[in-house]
Amino acid sequence: MGKRLKTYGGLGLLVSALVTGCDEAPSANRHEDTCAEPMSLRVEVMSSDGAYIQGASVTATNLESNVSITGVTDDRGVTTAINETLAPSPIRVVATAGSHVTRAERVEWTCDECHCTPVPESVTLKLQD
């Protein structure tokens, strides 16, 4: 009998958790809240001859507030560190690797009630020789 009560007790907790998930309280399941994760800009950094650059520093700066976010490219030359926390104002994106710098690219944001999406959604920056 003690075992049955233990099983029912666990089931009761499960049912209670499922029922409380129906109210307006924040959910512990991040996949349910589509507004929780910020939208990111995908930035690729390439050399002038087309090779992807690992370890390049990519900085995006909000053109109105001057607030910046910096990320570092992975082994595929990509970073997604730049996100909508810089929105809704346009941003300027530039990358550096050693003494090489890219031309700056301007990115706008399209915002709805939940997210701001970068326009364009990805940028490829080429290092200047």
Give a brief rundown of this model.
By secondary structure, the chain is α+β, with helices and mostly antiparallel strands. 15% of the residues lie in helices and 33% in strands.
What would your notes on this structure say?
The strands form two sheets. Strands 2, 3, 5, 6, 7 and 8 form a six-stranded antiparallel beta sheet that branches. With 129 residues, the protein is of the alpha+beta class. The N terminus is likely disordered. It starts with a helix and ends with a strand. The relative contact order is 0.20. The chain has one helix and nine strands.
Distance between the termini: 78 Å
Poorly predicted spans? 1-23
Sum up the overall morphology in one term.
globular
Number of helices: 1
Task: Assign a percent range to the helix content.
Answer: 10-25%
Strand content: 25-35%
Secondary structure layout:
Elements: H1 2-20, E1 42-46, E2 57-62, E3 68-72, E4 78-79, E5 91-97, E6 100-101, E7 105-111, E8 116-119, E9 122-126
Defining key terms:
129 residues, alpha+beta, six-stranded antiparallel β-sheet, three-stranded mixed β-sheet, 15% helix, globular, disordered N terminus
